[in-house]
Design a protein that fits this description.
alpha+beta; Alpha-Beta Plaits; NADH Oxidase; 2 domains; four-stranded antiparallel β-sheet; two-stranded antiparallel ribbon; 11 helices; oxidoreductase; Nitroreductase-like; Nitroreductase family protein
Length: about 300
């Protein structure tokens, strides 16, 4: 992404919001207070559009994204159908949270929404562990960071990398190699140096989705439930994001399984962090499916 991302200095307010909402901290503030790009991290940009969506003055430019074509004004609901699409259009993955706990009743409403999700065959197979103790999350964070540090070292070893490639499917290996490892290589040193939570994003609560690994349709059911949970959190005025880094580490770690009270026969499938968003996005981002075939 080098040379494909820029900031319009004439209109930039130097508010610094983009520094915080960027998942990979590509923006930095120089000694004069100006917002600039960290040249060593621009290759991590995946054009998620968060920075452009939150910028109040439209001062960020990314090659391939245009404010007039790829973004839209956030709608105001009028009918029930419009209200539903408004929830979809205004939801964004939240990775910057207020230092404020989420009340139990709101977390319960999220779990109630998950229970409304369709399932392959009743009854529900999905179980949820709700974690609202930040000390527990911090303990889990240490093990998760250590796990990914070890994985980084393994992926740099050709022999171990070959073993990993043979032990997982192509989707998982490509995700690890092309997305997770480059981000962790940049983020873990920052976390060790500054204490910044680059995995759970400092969220005050997390929901872990798991189910009996022998249960019918349990994987699809949990992922659909996760989607309902993300939408419910947004509808309740909260922010949330799915955390794909966490489930595989909990799944492999006896310590974390005990910490999160995961039954021995259960498989950890998904996780989402939730809290009050620190910032509100100014516009929505247009998305397109790779392909739609009409027959």
């Amino acid at each position: 992404m080098a040379g494909e991302k820029s900031i319009v200095d004439q209109t930039c307010r130097k508010c610094g919001i983009c520094l915080e909402v960027c998942p990979d901290r590509i923006f930095v503030q120089d000694q004069k207070g100006a917002i600039v790009l960290d040249a060593g991290k621009t290759h991590l940009c995946n054009k998620c559009g968060h920075c452009m969506a939150v910028c109040p003055t439209q001062s960020i430019k990314i090659a391939g994204l245009a404010y007039d074509q790829d973004f839209f004004a956030l709608p105001a609901p009028q009918t029930e159908a419009e209200a539903f699409y408004n929830v979809l259009a205004t939801r964004r993955s939240t990775r910057v949270f207020q230092n404020k706990p989420v009340p139990n009743d709101l977390l319960e409403k999220i779990t109630e929404a998950v229970a409304m999700a369709p399932m392959g065959f009743p009854p529900h197979k999905t179980e949820i562990t709700v974690v609202q103790n930040r000390a527990v999350l911090d303990e889990a964070l240490k093990y998760t960071a250590k796990s990914y540090q070890e994985m980084l070292q393994g992926m740099e070893n050709p022999l171990i990398r070959s073993i990993i490639r043979l032990s997982v499917n192509r989707e998982i290996f490509n995700t690890m190699k092309n997305q997770v490892m480059p981000i962790m290589k940049m983020s873990l040193p920052r976390m060790e140096k500054s204490g910044e939570d680059v995995i759970l994003r400092g969220a005050p609560a997390m929901l872990v989705f798991h189910a009996d690994k022998a249960a019918e349709n349990h994987t699809h059911d949990a992922l659909i439930g996760l989607t309902y949970g993300l939408l419910a959190a947004h509808a309740l005025g909260l922010g949330a994001t799915a955390i794909g880094l966490v489930p595989p580490v909990i799944q492999r770690s006896k310590i974390l399984r005990n910490l999160f009270q995961i039954p021995e026969e259960n498989e950890v499938l998904a996780a989402m962090v939730v809290g009050y968003p620190k910032y509100q996005f100014q516009r929505g981002i247009r998305r397109a499916l790779r392909k739609v075939t009409w027959i």
